[in-house]
Amino acid sequence: MKKVVLAYSGGLDTSCIVRWLREQDYEVVCFVADLGQGLGGEDLGAIEKRALAAGASKVYIKDLQDEFVEDFVLPALKAGAVYEGKYFLATALGRPLIAKYLVDIAHREKAGAIAHGCTGKGNDQVRFEVTAGILDPKLEIIAPVRTWEFKSREEEIEYCLMYNIPIDVTKRKPYSIDRNIWGISIEAGVLENLEQEPPEDAYLITKNPTHQASYPKYIEVSFEKGVPKKIEGRAYKLKSLINHLNEVGGHHGVGRADMVENRLVGIKSREIYEAPAATILHAAHRELECLVLDRELAHFKEGVALKYSELVYYGLWYTPLKSALDAFVESTQKRVTGSVKLKLFKGNCVPVARKSVHSLYKKELSTYGREDKFDQKLAEGFIRIWGLPYKR
Ligand code: ARG
Fold it and tell me: Fewer CB near the terminus (10 Å): N or C of the chain?
């Protein structure tokens, strides 16, 4: 029998896929990646049981949260990667990691194929398949949802009932949700109506900003060489630091985004996001860079950030350009040590104070006070020469 490793979520689609692949004469090994999507809440044992009931021969469940935040989230944070100005790329960053493990497990299991549950309309199929293709071009890739016969959720439920796959059919979800520790992506349902504000029930981890405390919460984040290390002077490992900020930020309604984005496959889609920790960390990191990077480096890095966000979004994580940009970004982070104080208030996150041992700010130059050391007479000549090319 041919063997396939499936990226399994425990949900309806991928449970049907297990059975469906069995019908196509595949032995199915399931792989569940824990990226902090709240699997702890759902019993991991129940997910494993469901996979086995659907016909899997083996189930791997791996907690990849530390690897995810250290090797994927952190480089993107240092790079300042935000897609189209709003999306912190939580879903997009997770895909290459999951694909890497699919390939690893396929090798270990001597499987000739991998499979995923993405539709043919989204970005995630591209991210999985491009990554797998880079890591092992010989693996066959199966995407049943693009070709199978099911036309509705109801048909899938019927299929599961027919094969006694324990699916919780009461959980009719009005949205399509992808979640990990770096953020939540929410689409479909009423969100497809662009002229309508997203209903409150679409948000999972951020409280309604308008109902939040009428006093602000101040929070200080400290970085060492671009890596967030402390909150309020207390050291955290990256994963707990992010969890903590998701909690505090979410409580103040920080981290919501509502956007119409350009998908890789040419479709525009309306999606909402929740990413409190990402919002806070990007704001703080950027603020610190403003203080320690010189003008030319800072401006150049903004262009790199834009490109980096595209590479992540487009599924081009394991590519030469991405590695080269990582090297550039890393070289800019040597000076990014210091602290930023932010004010969280009714959904807003605003840096209000900053300090660094590598600060390039010179008060004796910028001051309008008596201690001014800036020789204003020099400005006249500077301006004349600066404007020289444009003199007629
Ligand atoms: N649009 C986001 C991306 O391409 C999220 C995709 C997954 N979202 C979802 N609701 N299933 O990265």
Answer: C
When pLDDT is cut at 50, 70 and 90, the band that residue 214 belongs to is: confident
- Helix (H) or strand (E) run with residue 63 in it: strand 58-63
Q: Where are the domains of the chain?
A: 2-179, 181-355
pLDDT tens digit string along 246-267? 999 999 999 999 999 999 999 9
Ligand 1 pocket test: pick from 84, 271, 309, 314 the residue with the most ligand atoms within 8 Å of its Cβ. Answer: 271
Joined together, the tokens standing for residue 194 give 């662009």
Query: Can you spell out the DSSP letters for 232-280?
Result: TTEE--HHHHHHHHHHHHHHTTTTEEEEEEE-TTS-EEEEEEE-HHHHH
Ligand 1, residue 264: give the atom nearest the CA.
Answer: 4
Dist. CA 41 → ligand 1 center (Å)? 22
Active-site residue, 153 included:
no
pLDDT class of 172 with cuts at 50, 70, 90: low
Tell me the CATH number of domain 181-355, given options 2.160.10.10, 3.90.1260.10, 1.10.150.120, 3.40.1160.10. Answer: 3.90.1260.10
Task: Find out whether the beta carbon of 123 lies less than 6 Å from any atom of ligand 1.
Answer: yes
pLDDT tens string 118-148: 999 999 999 999 999 999 999 999 999 999 9
Measured in Å, residue 263 CA sits from the centre of ligand 1 at: 9
Tokens of 339: 């602290």
Distances (CA, A) of 170 to 166, 178, 332, 345, 390: 12, 19, 51, 37, 71
pLDDT digits over 32-55, tens only?
999 998 876 677 888 999 999 999
Q: Is 129 in the pocket of ligand 1 (CB under 6 A)?
A: no
Q: Which token pair is 352?
A: 């209000």
**Total-model pTM:** 0.96
Fold held by 2-179: Rossmann fold (3.40.50)
